[in-house]
Each structure stands twice: as C-alpha cells, then as structure tokens.
Amino acid sequence: GGGGASRAADPGGSEALAQLVERWQGGGGVAGSFRAGALEDLWAALRGALRIAPPQREGQVALAQLIWDGLGAGALRSSGSRERLALPPDVSPGVLALCSRVLEPAAEANAGTAATAAGIGESRVGGAPPVVLRLMAHALHEASLQGGQDEALLRHLAALLRRDSDLSSSSLALSCLARLVERSPAAVRKAAREVSEGVLAATKCVSEHFLYGRAATLGVLRDAHTLLQALPVLFQEVQEPLEPSALALLANLQPCAVTGAPYIVHSRQALNGNNQPPNLGTPILAAALPSETERSEIDASGSGNGSGADAVTAHRRGPGRARGGVGDDPATALAALAVQCRAAALRAFAQLFKLWPKAFFGRWPLVLDFHSGEVLRGAGGGRGVPLPMLLAICKEDPASKVRSAGLCALCALLEAPAVRTWPVPLERDASGGCGGGALAAGSSGPAFTPFAGQVATTLRQAHALVFGLLQSRAPGDVQNSLRACVDIIGCTPYTKLRPGLLSEAVRALVPFLRGFNPLETLDSVPQTVTLAVSALHTAFKREDCADELGRYIFSTPKLLPGGRSSGGLGSAAPAGTPVADELLGLALHIVRLAAATVPSPAPTPAAPASRRGRAGSGACMLSPTVATGREAEGGELAVALDYMSLAGRLVHLRPGALASSTLDLLQEVVDALLDQPGPALWARGCRMVEDLLPARPAAAAPAASRAPAELPAAWCEGAAHRLLAGLPAKPLPVAHTAALCALPGLVLAAMRGHTEGTAAALRPHVLAALRVGAGDAGTAVRTAAAQAAGALVRLWLDPPEAASLQGGQAALHLLIALFDDGSADVRSAAATAAASFAAGALTANIPEAGVGGADGGTGGSSPALPLRDWPWRAALQGALALCRDSSDKVRASALRSVGFLAEVHDFGADAASDSDPQPTGAVKADIPPGLEASCFKGSGGLAGAEAEGLLLARLAETLSQCVASPPPKCQWGACRAIGQVYRNRALLEDSSVAQQAHEELLRALCREMASSKNMKVRIQAAQALQQLPADASLWAPPLADAFVTALCEALAFVESPSSSGGAPEERNLASYTKALCAELLLLGRRWAECAAEPPGEAAQKALRAAAYLLQWLMEGRELGAARRCSWGTPAAQEGGAAGGCEEPAASPRSGAVPAGDRLAQRLAPFLAGRRPTAPSAHSTGASSSEVSDTAQ
Q1: Residue range(s) defining the domain that contains residue 824
Q2: Residue of 991, 1093, 994 lying closest to 1043 (CA atoms)
Q3: Is beta strand 293-294 parallel, antiparallel or unpaired with respect to 316-317?
Q4: Helices (H), 939-1068
Q5: In this structure, is residue 389 part of a structural domain?
Q6: Can you tell me the distance from the alpha carbon of 301 to that of 325, in angstroms, rounded to the nearest whole number?
Q7: H-helix or E-strand containing 265?
Q8: Which of 496, 711, 966, 1130 has the fewest CB atoms within 10 Å of its CB?
Q9: What is the structure's pLDDT at 866?
C-alpha cells in the first residue's frame, strides 16, 4: 500500500524483501532445510529496501512491517528461535532513520485530529504504529546514533507520549525512550522537560487502565509491565524536572501495585462478618479472551527479571504458545503478569522514595494507605489495628517477589533523612511525660493522629511486620526480612521512641546465629546466618543506643516460669546466659573452624627501606579490593571476618564492669585470634585488644568503653609477647597497623601488675616493632608507629634504668626522623608523640632530677639530669620547621609539640654556638600565608640578636607569627606554646637575645588578647600571659604598659555592644565572655603584683577608661549588664539610674573588695572623683599599633 512505485523502481529492494518473507512464512520446512547464504540474501534485500525508501508515510510503515516480519521469519527458519535476528552494523542506522521519519509526523500531529480508539490496546489513527516502535527498540541495540539524532528521537518520543493515550503505544515509546536515555544521557539534559512530561503522561495512561476495577487483558498487563520496567532508568536520569511531579507519579503508580491482588475488594462493597465478596481471591479477568494475542516486549522477560527493551520479540501466536512463566491457562497467564506488574510498580515506589524523600515525608497517610480498593483488614497489625496498604502488601500478597519489592519500598520510605534526624521525641513515655505525637495508653487526646504519632506507629508496625516475617517458613521471606532489618535498624530514631525496640530487634536476630553451631566447616554457611550477622552489625553500630544495647547484651536475662529465658536464648544456651556470652561462644567456635581451614599465607616482598621517595598520605596503603584479594589468598573466609568484626563491636558496647564469665570468654577469643596464621583474623584480634585496653580513648566513644577492661596483668603480658612475636610473620599492612594500635594499651596493662622484669623484657621487642613500623611503606603503619611511640613513654621512664633511657632516646630519634615524612598524617602523629616525650620528661620521677625554677616560683622545672642527653634540640628544630607546614593539622600538632619541647630544652647550650644551622628534617612544603619568615631562609630574623639564627630567637619569631596566622586552632596552639616558653628559665637570663625574644612574644600575646576575632584565641592569650614570670627584668615600664593597655582593650571589647553578636564559631558567646572576664581579672592582679613602676601616659588613659570594669569584676559582678547600659550619654553620666542605666547586678559571689587588695590599691587613683564611662573600641586611647610602639 503506497510502496508500489518504489518497488517498481527498485525490484531488488522492497520487492525482493517481500518475496523472501512470503517464501519463508509460507514454507513448511524446518531450520535444517534453510539453505546456506539465505541470511545474506535477507541483509542484501534490507539494504536495497532502505536505500530507496518510499516517501509516503503509509509506504514507510509498510516497509517497517515487512522488515519486522523478515527478522522474525529469518530467525525462525535459520535456528528455530522466535527471537528476532540482530541487525548488522551497517543496516541498523538505516532502520533507525526509517523509524525516525515515521515518528516525526506522528509526534507533530495534533491529538485532537486523531480518531477515537476502537478499544483498549488498539492504536489511535495518526499515532505511531506499534510495529515501528518495536522495530526502533530492536534497532537501538546495535545502531550508532549520529549528530543530533538522539536528541531528535527523544523529542519525537516525548511528544508521542504526551499526545497519545494508547497504552500499547505508550509502553513501546517509553521503552524506546529508556533505551535512548541509557545510550545518550547527555541528550536527556537538553530535552529534560519534554521527557519528564512524556513520563508523567505515560504513568497517567497506565493508571487509567487499572482504576475502578477495570478488567485487565493479557495485552494490557504486558504493556503495563513493559512501561513499568522502563521507569527506573528514566527516574534516575531525569531527576530534577520530575521532582515537582513526584506525588503525581506515585499516585499514578499506586493502582498498578495492587492490580490482580487477591486481597483487594474492587467493588467497594461492605464486608459483613466473614462473608467474602464474590470476586475476592481471584484477579479481575476479561470476560472473553481473544483467541490470538499480540505479544509485546514482556515475552522475553521471563518471570519479570529481564528488561522490557530486550524483549522486542512480538509474534502472532496462539494461546498455547505462551512462555516466560505464563502457561496455557488464561487465568494463570493473567495472574503471573499481574504479579510482575505489582512487583515492578513497587520497585518504582522504592526508587521514588530514594530520589525525592522530601516530597513524600509529611504525606505518609497518602503514601502508605492509598485506596485503589478496599483491603481485607482481618489480618492487620495485631490487637485490632489494621495495617496500611503498603505494609499489608508486604504481609498479605501471595507472590514472594511482590512481598520482597514491598519491603524494599517500605525501607526506602523509612530511610528518609528527616526520619533519622527527627529532633523531638515521637512517643510519650510510660508515665505520659513529654514525648512525641503518639499518646500514651489510656490517655485522652484529639480525634486525629498527629504526624509524629503517625511516624512512631509506622515504625513500630514496620518492626512488627519484619519480626513476623522472620518467623515465616518461606526461606525467601526470611532472607528478605533479614535484609530489611539492616535498613530499618539503620534508619530508625530509637532514641526518640520508648526504649526497648532495638533490644527486641537484637532478640529476634540472635537465634539465627545459632546456625553456626552444627557447622563443621565454614565453606557452606547458610545465607540467613550471614544476613543476620550483617543486621546485628548494623544494630551494634548504633552509638546513640549504646547504653540500651550494653544493658541488654551484657545483663543476665530474667527467667520466665518454666525455666525459660526472657532473652530469647531458649534451649541454645543455658538459662540465664547473657547474650554477650552466647555471641562470644559462637566467636570462639568460628575461630576454631577458621583455624582448621586457613593455610599459611605466602610471604610478600619486603618494602623498600628508603622513605625519601614516598608520596603523600595514603599513597602506600592497600586499597580495599587488594586487601580483600590478599585475604582470600590466605584462605580466610569473609564470614569469619564479618563475625569477628561483629564481636569487636560487641566489645565496644561493654559496660564498666564485666562478669567473670564474659572476661574469660574474651580472653579465650583473643588468644584464639592471635594464634591464627591468617593476617586478617589476627588483625581482628589486635583490634579487639585495642577496644578492651584503649591507651588513649577517643572523646566521642561511649562512657563505658573509655575505661580499660580489668584484664589480668599476667595475661596482658603474655598477649603482648605473642603479639610482638607474630608481627613479623604477617604481610598485610592492616595487620601491622592493628598490632601497633593495640600494643600501647596491652603493654601499659601488663605494667600495672609490674612484676620485676616485665618492662625490661618487653622494651627491646617494642623498640624493634617501632623501628619496623617507622620504616614501613604503608602510611597507616607509620602513623600507628608514631602514635604507639608517644603512648609508650612510660615504658622508658618507669623504672628509670640506663637501658630503658637509652631505648627512649632511640624512640625519640625515630620520631624526629618521621618529621621528614611525605605524609601529613605521619608528620602530625610524630609531632604529637614528641610532645608526649617532653611532657613525660617534665613529670618523670628520677632521683638525679635537677629542679630549676624562676624567681617567684613561676619559672617551671627542667627535666631530670639523665634525660638532658635526649635529642631535645633536634626535636625542637624539627618541630619549628613543621610550624610552616602546608597542612593545618600538622601545624597544630607541631605548635603543641613546640610548647612542651621549649619547656624541656636547655637553651643555655645555645650560647656556646656561634651559629645555629638550618634544622634537618624541614619539610619542603609551601609556607602558608603569614609565615614567610626570614629565619626560615637560613638567616637571623630578630634585629639586634647577638648571633643570627639562635634557637631561642627563631622560636620567638616563629611563635609570634603563628599566633597571628589562621586557622584559630593553630593560633590557640601558638598562644599555649608561648605560655610554656615562659616556664623555661632561659628567658630570665641577662642577654639581648632573651630580652628581645620576650618582647616579641609579649607583643604577639597582647595583640591577640586585645584584637583577635576568635574568643577562644583571646582566652588562650590571656592564659599564656599569666605564665609571665615575676622577674623585674620582664616587667620594665614599657612592657608593663603594653600589658595593661592590652588588658584594658580586652575589657573594652567585652563591654562594647559589638561583642553581643558573634561570628559563627562563637556560638557559646556568653560562656566564652564569662571565661574571658575571669582570665582578665587574674591578669589585672598579676599586673598589680609584678609591675613596680607607675604606668605611662597611654596606659593611664586606658586605665581611667576601664578601671571601673576591673572593679566590678573584683566585686563579682557580671559585665553583661554593663553592655546594655549607655554610660557615655550625658544623662547617664549626670543622673545615674535616673538617666536610664543601672549598675550590673551583683552575683551571689559578689561582695566588698578586701582592704589589702593590691589591684584595688593600684586602681584607686583612676576611680577617685569621677563616675565610670563605658569604654568603646576607640575609647581606651591605645590601639594595637600603640601597644607595639609602647613595647618598643
């Protein structure tokens, strides 16, 4: 029809193709009689037909039908398969171009000119013929899209979807659209709006076919399933334009989620008693099924797991030729297709909930309990409470795949961020106290259910549903519910619900772990057991519920009548056994099974000894994939590693005191793990030791885990020796890291019992382990070695023996060498560890200690004489070099180290040096802004220094620059370090270097206390100034004037209105202000006691403006009220309270200042005969620049 002219012009094209197809379709032969070269005749005929295609649309459609029939007939004749032949690469572009030409006028046609469709499943006149869309989907597998062809096809298909309400055409067009989106995601962004409108129109079309109980035919269900399978990729790629329509999309898909469900009453008649309506239990079927059905893309989808676009294999078959899980019986075919539609719709639900959680949160009644029909509510949520529709699907649907998809959708809905971060309680407690929206039992409330109550009820119903499915006899339901447990436990805000729900989840999951008991090998662990391990691991990671978990897991369960345990242990363990003991017993069983099957791993090549060429942080660490591969080479099974990780979380949740049975089991498990030949399980044992005996617990850890477990010292000593002996045989860096992290806690615990020779026996092995770790190629290993060295300072100083002090000196040399490491993490850890060495030296109790101090008792102390030979000078030089590191973390650690090292170092040795060479170990890194000092270039930085580059001069200049260089954590550390420098007696020496260093440091501290933008930096600067010794040489009039002027400026800042608001980092401004006022009062007393000379003119002006503030602080009054007064106005100065201002109210600690108070005596001349005037930022008469000038 319409293609005759073309065929006459090209008898070898369409005519040859038509004759070939007619001969194949009419022949009675089988595949074996198909002659060789017949397919080549087909491709030649196709090329000829496409070369001169008919210009009329009718001829193009006929050619498309001919090509489609040829592909089907050729496949049937050549191989007996009903799958159509794949197109050659040079043919598929022409087929795609032909389909595009047919679609273009159909897409541009007005929907109003189309004739009325003859019925459901039939194409409208003027639309795209189904055969063209099928052929396009088939060609998209092989065709290469050229120059804008993808974008044009996208727009044509989207327009067709918007204007054609036929389900068959919509499903085929949407399938083609999904394939185009997969192949050309960039084109989607250009036509995103058109595509989103087409997707919304397609979902509306499928919704109309399932509303109001309309009969569903096989064709409708096939087309609906094809459409539903194409949605996920479109949702993913067209997120932004579809987000405003998320609710509309869900409403369109909701009827598909219950189509053919036997528990849905479509007639909406009332259910009286137990009488079921006639149609309950059977899907809606068409009254008369057609004798022939045009199969669409669902044909090759099997039981619903394949892609609809991959199944473009329609062929005219009788009912007896159905396949893909659909049998000869029409009712069976309909039921199977309905199951696939329901599962596909629920999978689309899950993706909608994950992509746009905000669109559905707050609308849970519409999302959960949609009413496409009335659900039979007899089996609801228990105690007469019906389940919402979505939860009822998970429980009542007869198809396992539908229940699984429903659970996935439910978990995706509950995983919304707004649920996890719910800010207020969701339920009232048992006494009816303050809680969320859910009312306590027996309490009266409004007739409606508030949304908080809806959330709480849904969470509890979801838990009850999953717990019920865990008891199911169907293995699929049990596995799906275990997977759902992982998601639900991870997203439920248990702290906002009444306690006990998470404990119930643990109680329901523990019985599944008993599947390990009968096993004699770990080669075939049931999947339910591995899923239960994952779910329990998720539960044990809930740090916010650590107290509840610890109480439940480690407490002895109560016994019920008959000797049964309320803890859910049943006959698997003796009555009254804590859950922790059962889990640890299983861990011991698993470790023994693993030891029987794990061969010794092959050794790996040794790491290079040089660290010079190493890259930055993490460059030498194994990736998870490589580590997993090496563990597999060693034969270690993943299930054993996962369970040991679970046991480690169990240790992390332990209470303060453990039962003796639990302690014994823990020791047995650790012993068994340390005997493992495989490195990964051995590392798990080291991590368990670290959790049991933390050397430096993290501040964020639960309170119960911060205290080391009370393990016997003899066992700790033996475990330490076994760990050190097994370390060289473990090739994995993760094993070395775990061992070095566990070593400090284990050694220190062994030293608590301190039998004679304990420390002496451990020292050489520990030092050897530290040497190996410091030279390892892995960044994490070197970091752990540095941290371990810093945590084990006590090993070298207790007791102080010659051999132990030599070991400590060697360990400190290792740390100094790590200052030059290429990783910022390693440099930071080494600097922190060096600070620990200096702090330990200052507090060491050694008989030969040389105690020194400054006049007035504020000079601090020096290290013991035997420790002065330690390389403090080299450590201080390296730390000063790290103060200019490009990493903020390294600079902060280095500044902390500089403070302790400056306090412990004897600067007197510098006087004998003519010059101070550039310190070795300086990191070649970019110097941050503000730290470009001349002393870093090898020349002296202080004018007037007796010898350029002296260590004390460089120390002063470095710290004064770091005080003014952000970030605040580095400024804070520099201020603290200056305060520690003042504890060293070197600043009391009568030398120009010491005097200029003092002036440099004092100017820096005064500047930050008076003008820093960060309140914590001001506080730390004030605390550092309190360390200023009382020696008269340090309180000369210019320096004392700079001190008191900065004090007055800081008081003016506290009083000024500009300090009432704050930067984002000053959230606790009120508490910071109170702390700063306390420090300023102490500074004022320090000045009054140490400054002997009267203040200068600038300092007197500042004191006259701020003296009354100091007086109020001495009386214990708060300065916050002074900030709300306007003492500067003439009315306030003249009339006092009558002028609208009152003095700050006295605090409970306020009272009269003692008569002999030195500060009150010094302030008296500045308070006599005048009323106070509030100082402002400019009223003190001395700016920061004047402070510097005064100090000079």
Answers
A1: 760-845+862-870
A2: 1093
A3: antiparallel
A4: 951-963, 968-981, 992-1011, 1015-1025, 1037-1055
A5: yes
A6: 9
A7: strand 264-265
A8: 1130
A9: 67
Least Cα distance to 390 among 349, 450, 449 occurs for 349
Residue 294 has pLDDT above 90, yes or no: no
Region 594-603 average pLDDT: 60
**Sign of the CA dihedral running 180, 184, 187, 193:** positive
Question: Structure tokens of 948?
Answer: 């350029």
Question: What one-letter code names the amino acid at 1018?
Answer: R
Neighbours of 1148 (CB within 10 A): 6
Find the CATH number of the domain harbouring 485: 1.25.10
Residues 711-732 have a mean pLDDT of: 91
Helix intervals (H) in 883-981: 888-904, 951-963, 968-981
Among 517, 534, 562, residue at a domain's last position: 562
Tokens of 353: 């909930």
- Domain tally, the chain: 2
Can you tell me the mean pLDDT for 992-998? 89
Dihedral sign computed on CA atoms, order 900, 901, 902, 908: positive
CA-atom Rg of the chain in angstroms:
40
958 lies in some domain: no
Mention every residue, 6+ apart, whose C-beta is less than 8 A from residue 38.
74, 77, 78
Q: Indicate yes or no: pTM above 0.85.
A: no
Give the percent of the chain with pLDDT over 90: 38
Beta-bridged to residue 265, according to DSSP, are 374
Sign (positive or negative) of CA dihedral 604, 608, 609, 611: negative
Whether 697 is covered by a domain: the verdict is no
Identity at 1129, one-letter amino acid code: T
User: What pLDDT shows up at residue 606?
Assistant: 42
More confident residue, 178 or 382: 178
651, 666 Cβ separation under 8 angstroms: yes
Residue 771 has pLDDT above 90, yes or no: yes
What is the CA angle 972-705-733, rounded to 5? 80
CA distance 157 to 702: 58
Q: Give residue-wise pLDDT tens across range 1012-1044.
A: 989 999 999 999 999 999 988 889 999 999 999
DSSP 12-42: IIIIHHHHHHHHHHH----GGGPPTTHHHHH
SS3 letters for 580-626? HHHHHHHHHHHHHHHHHHCCCCCCCCCCCCCCCCCCCCCCCCCCHHH
| Distance, CA of 490 to CA of 486 (rounded, Å) | 6
Tell me how far apart the alpha carbons of residues 831 and 816 are, in angstroms, rounded to a whole number: 8
Instruction: Quote the CA–CA distance of 686 and 672 in Å, as a whole number.
Output: 11
CA separation for the pair 197, 457 (Å, rounded): 36
Residue ending a domain, choose from 562, 586, 616: 562
Q: Please name the residue that has the structure tokens 């109309």.
A: 208
Q: Residue 18 to residues 56, 76, 91, 102, 136: CA-CA distances in angstroms? A: 18, 16, 17, 20, 20
Cα distance between residue 304 and residue 537, in whole Å = 33
Q: In this model, does residue 99 exceed pLDDT 50?
A: yes
d(CA 99, CA 149): 12
> CA 242 to CA 202: how far, in whole Å?
13
Q: With left for phi above 0 and alpha for psi between -120 and 50, is residue 1172 left, alpha or beta? A: beta
More confident residue, 612 or 70: 70
- Does 1077 or 89 have the greater pLDDT score? 1077
293-294/374-375 β-pairing: unpaired
Q: Tens digits of per-residue pLDDT, 1127-1161?
A: 333 333 333 333 334 454 444 444 556 666 788 88
With the C-alpha atoms ordered 933, 938, 944, 945, is the resulting torsion angle positive or negative?
Answer: positive
Highest mean pLDDT among 183-187, 604-608, 706-710: 183-187
**First-to-final CA distance of the chain:** 105
Under the banding of pLDDT at 50, 70 and 90, the label for residue 427 is confident
Question: CA-to-CA distance for 136 and 157, rounded, in angstroms?
Answer: 11
